[in-house]
Amino acid sequence: MRVRVKLNQADLTGLAVGLPAEIVLDAYPTRRFRGRLERIAPVATPGMSDKVRSVLATFSLEGRDPILTPD
Fold first, then answer.
1. Residue 43 has what DSSP assignment?
2. Which of 11, 51, 54, 62 has its CA 20 to 30 A from that of 45?
């Protein structure tokens, strides 16, 4: 399963494809899922203001969990 995330440009420092990640989903805030950063979009898009930009990233979740269903 994969998760698409909008990252703030300020959060990009130190990120690289292949790094492990701990993923927390809004729907299950008490659960932690292990994953890996699969992709960072090459182009940033405007965020909530003209000074802040967002970048789309894709994370893959390791293993399977019966609580998660693809959407």
1. S
2. 62
Q: What is the pLDDT of residues 5-32, one digit of tens each?
A: 999 888 888 899 999 999 998 989 999 9
Q: Would strands 28-40 and 2-8 be described as parallel, antiparallel, or unpaired?
A: unpaired
| pLDDT greater than 90 at residue 52 | no
Q: What are phi and psi of 10, to 5 degrees?
A: -70, -20
- What pTM value is reported for the model? 0.81
Structure tokens at 39: 């992709």
DSSP class of 50: T
Supply angle C-alpha 35, 16, 30, rounded to 5.
30
